[in-house]
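Methods: example folding runs. The two proteins below were folded one after another, and each record is reproduced exactly as written to the output file, sequence line first and structure-token line second.
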Amino acid sequence: MSDIEAVLEHLANLPLYEDEKPYLALLPPSHPIHKLSPGKRLNNLEWESYDTTIHDIRPDIQNYKIDECGFQVLDHESKVKNLETVESVVAYRRETEGLLKEVLGAEFAFCYDLALRENVKWGRSELDLLDPLLVQGPARGVHNDVTAMSGPAMINRHLPEDVKHQYCSPYYRYRIVNTWRTLNPVAKDRPLTFCDYQTVDPDDLMPADRIIPVGASEVYYLLHNLEQRWVT
């Protein structure tokens, strides 16, 4: 495989966001807002599409390390062959914890969530993030799931109290890591691409509120910049 051309969606750099923070609400069908404001748009996100070169890193894949560029490719075969039951989801989360402890040399790892994504369209009436077996469509727009504000809040919200008591210390480093695994041998539609974070200008990171059933968090959407280097 060689470099390819693809279209990436970036958050539009609009004057709107000088007065109004970008936001996205992901709420289940049972939420009162669906009855109070049926059909109401639950985000103010506007996108711009850009033709982008996606570089093939396979020839020197070993040179890409998480501490240097923000991602790393691992050769690992899961023992969990399907994710069709709650028990299999729990088993996969435990397996992920073991993998991250090994790769990162961590003393402790805690997997608090798992998301299944397929290249399917789904409507608001189908969305229920409280369902552990929910199959979601592709996430829209170039983004980073964690910001400088939401990271510490996520740690505080998800870690058990005894774990926080043991590890909330200057002697320990916290990391919030996403792991991705394809459901098919070859991802032909909506494959994942990464941006080398050494090529990201901090001014291109736009904080946005993300509202989910258990509360509000914050993500970064990325404004377009020709200096960004995308790989797969």
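Second run, written to the same file directly after the first:
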Amino acid sequence: MIEAVPGCLVENYEHLIEDLKLSDANDRHVLAAAIACQADAIVTSNVRDFDLGSIKALPPDDFCTSLYEKNPARVFQTVRALRLRLRRPPKTADQLLSLYERQGLPQLSRLLHQEIERI
């Protein structure tokens, strides 16, 4: 991930953990890292455990769908490139979108199915 997305690693957030209050104390490091890097949102399937105030907790499908709405061409390009890198086993566009749906991305999968030939 560090090579694919330079600058994605959040450091020096540990001092914030102790003062944070969440329903699951094991999630405090996630919020601390988000605060340290001034994130607008945390992408998580566990939105119920995050009462974040100014930082939104977004389910992955909502986040991915918002990316699609902002730049559908870029999302199609990225998903196609990702699919073409899958080799063990390779996947058709339909297989990949079915996998996305099973993994909790039904909205994104439906949107991408509308122009599946682009994948």
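Comment on the second run: The chain has two domains: 14-58, 62-118.
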